[in-house]
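Hi C.,

You asked whether I'd gotten around to modeling the 301-residue construct. I have! Everything is below, sequence then structure, no commentary in between.
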Amino acid sequence: MPHFSTLSITPDATHPRVARLLLNRPERFNAIDDAMPREIRSAVEWANAEAEIHVIVVEGAGKGFCGGYDLSQFGAGDIDHPCQQERAPWDPMVDYACMKRNTDDFMSLWRSAKPTIAKVHGAAVAGGSDIALCCDLLVMADDARIGYMPTRVWGCPTTAMWTYCLGPLRAKQLMFTGDVVDGRTAAAWGLANEAVPLAALEGAVMKLANRIAGVPRAHLAMHKMVVNQVLLTMGLEQTQMMATLFDGITRHDPEGLWFRRYAQENGFKAAVQWRDSGRAIPEGDEARALVREMEARREPR
């Protein structure tokens, strides 16, 4: 059985045709660190190489599915990172290479020849929603939440799956507002296959997984290829390229730099509270002036 630092994958003890991929950083709400995207890809590759496995269930340990990227350091800290460059002028292609690799790793769930089911409790937000929406099917607790709040400032969902899963009207609504929706709403909108009470989530997911697991692997792979080809023909790969580039821009334009400097000065929680409150985000010349003021206060005396 493979060993990973951020997740685990094992055949289900009762249903060996079902692999359980568990995001396992509960102390950080299963937040995405540098290792997790690569480990998701490796876990999917392992499951695809196991002849007995027919379907993969993706779930989160602890209180929720995944709270997005781990911004405890990159959001409010001073660490220079390929995807958040601070000590040198921003290089968009270095940023793109870093984030595109993560996007491709998440999309291993979508490319997997064996169907993938996201089992969401608590929340799948920001980058966590990318992971959930790269799965073929989505089953949610009715009080679970899903959304991409950083569309308000400092982010663009690099997998670009919202439009393909929801259609343009609902996708625009969520991208323009940064709102999250609960499982009931996600199911009503067609984003989730099903929403059930939390106590019934495990049973609902395993009922679906076992129904799928009885189908021959080759049939599952062919049916998935047919459906995925429609999305590819619609331009999914080109859209992801644009979204990944735009994600880097949102983190380094005046508004993105204001958000990061505000987080560094006041704490990431305070920055998120401003972002999600509906309060206007400083932009343009106002954002530039605020960035200069905050950077001056940060300079060593």
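If it helps when you're writing up: The chain is about 50% helix and 15% strand.

Thanks,
B.
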